[in-house]
Amino acid sequence: MNENICAISTALGVGAISIVRASGPEVIMIANEIFEGKDLTQVPSHTIHYGYIVENKEKIDEVLVSVMRAPKTFTMEDVVEINCHGGIATTHRVLEALLLHGCRMAEPGEFSKKGFLNGRIDLTEAEGINDLIASETEEARKYAMNLVGGNLKAIIQKSRDVLVSLDAELEVNFDFPEEADNPEITHDKLKTALLHIKEDLEKLIASSKEGKLLKNGIDIAILGKPNVGKSSILNHLLDEKKAIVTDIAGTTRDIVEGTTTLSGIKINLLDTAGLRETEDIVEKIGVDKSKDIVTKADLVLYVLNNNEEIDDKELEYIHSLKNVQKILFINKNDLESKIDKSVLNRDEVAEGNTLTPDGLDQLKERIVSLFHLNEIKGKNYNFLSNARQTALAKKAYASIESAITSVEEFMPFEMIAVDIKNAFDELGEIIGVTYKEELLDELFSKFCLGK
């Protein structure tokens, strides 16, 4: 924690400005050694100064240097940010100068890690920062900002405050039962309080799926026989010619991916090789990959040609997708219908085409309805954001359930207190009040360098 670290905080490449950031107890002094201008050790906090970065009497770049003194910084340490001209060579020379004068290269996410360890942010806020950087849609941005703003932390902390109060009352009652002025604690009071916490945790856990949708989007695998229009659907939804479209069966031999948005949510489209028996080795590999991707997708969009009958083998495959969320899309509805729709589940069917501007509207509406996208947008974004948070919330929920069972069976307060303490600690792990060093290393290693 006492080391001086530095890193490039902006994307490398040709641009107007690059920022090299440094944090630590001596970074102002280190920056001053390579800065020609004002004495940075004497300037007020949160000020910007014009000058040059100089190494061995050579002017490396004309810069603006921001000086921010602890504790009012992101890391709660002294921070220096050197705003230099964009460009790989220039930015690297500025970084090299800091490294030569006493800084070391920061690890991915180390600035955020310092902010967490110094109490500036909690783990949910740190994860929100990373989500904010990675957000690709407006809804994902709002969701990440909700985390950065500490809203999830506030919900978790509210439950922890109740639990610690209950635990304190239990401790006093079973440690000092003879005291007349002990706060009154009854099984009914305990149960009421625990049921409220259980209800809050139920809502949080149920929201984890919505958080995943906002953060990662929906993975949709487009399946079907060759030449039913899968690639045309992909291109139409993306509004670009991403996949090659021909009348030759087997044109698509590998997964073709593309991303768009629907109702503000990211949609990841995966166009697959047409499902058919083939002797072509390359096409066969593509068909096998198509079948494998079904297990990983959030939704299977199975495409049927309105102008062709459904054969028994295809119908058998459709019926085999029992535990998969799917839409059966009857494409080319501008042509004469030869499909017997009575053999299909009407609740799963949508129809359309890729020729008219509104040809896929029914399909889009079905996706929005299936995933309740309009309802998610109207909520407050207080969702668990990843598997780590969800797993800990489920553990805390199980501890609360165990405590409620003990209360209903009129078990001794000492036994009930064990479950309450467990839930308190598990909720604490979500926001990082308690943590393991290995967890921090893994979590912050996923951050970009310089953040």
Set out the fold topology:
Layout: E1 5-8, E2 17-23, H1 27-33, E3 35-36, E4 47-55, E5 58-68, E6 79-85, H2 88-100, E7 104-105, H3 110-117, H4 123-134, H5 138-148, H6 151-175, H7 187-206, H8 208-216, E8 218-224, H9 230-238, E9 256-262, E10 265-271, H10 281-293, E11 299-305, H11 312-320, E12 326-331, E13 349-351, H12 361-370, H13 373-377, H14 387-408, H15 413-431, H16 437-445
Parallel strand pairs: 1-7, 8-10, 8-11, 11-12, 12-13
Antiparallel strand pairs: 1-2, 2-6, 3-4, 4-5, 5-6, 9-10
Sheet with most strands: 7 strands, mixed
Percent of residues in β-strands: 15-25%
Q: What gross morphology would you assign?
A: flat
Low-confidence stretches: 242-254
Helix content: 40-55%
Global structural class: alpha/beta
Report how far apart the termini are: 16 Å
Overall number of strands: 13
In the sheet with the most strands, the strands line up as 3-4-5-6-2-1-7
Mean pLDDT figure = 85
What radius of gyration results from the CA coordinates?
29 Å
* Secondary-structure element string: EEHEEEEHEHHHHHHEHEEHEHEEHHHHH
Work out the helix count.
16
